[in-house]
Known about the structure:
The chain has three domains: about 5-55, Transcription Regulation, Sacy, Chain A; about 70-165, PTS-regulatory domain, PRD (Orthogonal Bundle), CATH 1.10.1790; about 185-279, PTS-regulatory domain, PRD (Orthogonal Bundle). About 60% of the residues lie in helices and about 10% in strands. The protein has helices at about 60-70, 70-90, 95-115, 120-130, 130-145, 155-165, 175-195, 205-220, 230-240, 240-260, 265-279, and strands at about 5, 10, 15-20, 25-30, 40-45, 50. The strands form two sheets. The protein has a four-stranded antiparallel beta sheet with strand order 2-3-4-6, with no helix packed on it. The chain has a two-stranded antiparallel ribbon with strand order 1-5. A hairpin with a 5-residue loop joins strand 3 and strand 4. It is elongated and about 75 Å long.
Amino acid sequence: MITFKVDKILNNSLVLSKNSDNNEVILMGKGIGFNAKVGDLLDAEQIEKCFVLQQITGIQGYLNLIESLPDDYIELTRFLLDYASKTLQTTFRETLFFTLLDHLNYAIERYYSGVVIQNRLLYEVKSFYPKEFEVAKYGITYINQRLNISLPEEEAGNIAFHLVNGQSHQQTMQHTLLSVKMLKDIFNIIQFNFAIRIDKQSLHYSRFLTHMQFFIQRIFEQKQLQSDNDFVFQQVIRQYPDEFKCANIIKKYLINQLNITISNEEILYLILHIIRIVH
């Protein structure tokens, strides 16, 4: 049976130890630090997660933070991530525990200081990442009940950003924030060019949103769709000149934002989705 020796107790749920490679690790488990002593042995069955310190950027700062926080904050972060993982049926990067704990602590500090920071992308987060937002909203409600505080809905938007960014297949937080901003701007470009209000309850909107999310992800990963067949592209742009004009405006916007080139194949699919959403 694999065992770990307690080197330092951080709080009731976290202890420092070393793994079989003699690397420092943080062990997480319900109550594993409670009544524990340095030198005690822990069975693997007691451990929920094992974080290798050298794999976590800025870990010393997080360690200092953990030792300064109430156990409630640790437990609330654990609860939120467990709930999110089960509800969204996904896995998260190990670093999300630390970044989310840091964010929650900062949010609670701001609450007690009376500082309110408006999340200007709250509406877009609700629209683009509804599942993550609902999970985050539930988490905020739970935290408010446990701590007898009143964190605002904006915090659910902030936590949703962390959940999106923390999923294993996602990019950096900077990419996540930029993606949401670009999605918002692209929808505004389409609405302005066609003088319409897009029905955000429609199936075409949902399909377009999904396409754009994957499109932006492919751009970040440098995996754009490519094709040598130009015939269909030429046919479409002749038949739908207004949609092509709009797609070109979006193309120029993305080039300006990201300093990239965009393939005709990607523009073709963009035009087809614009056709669906505006007609």
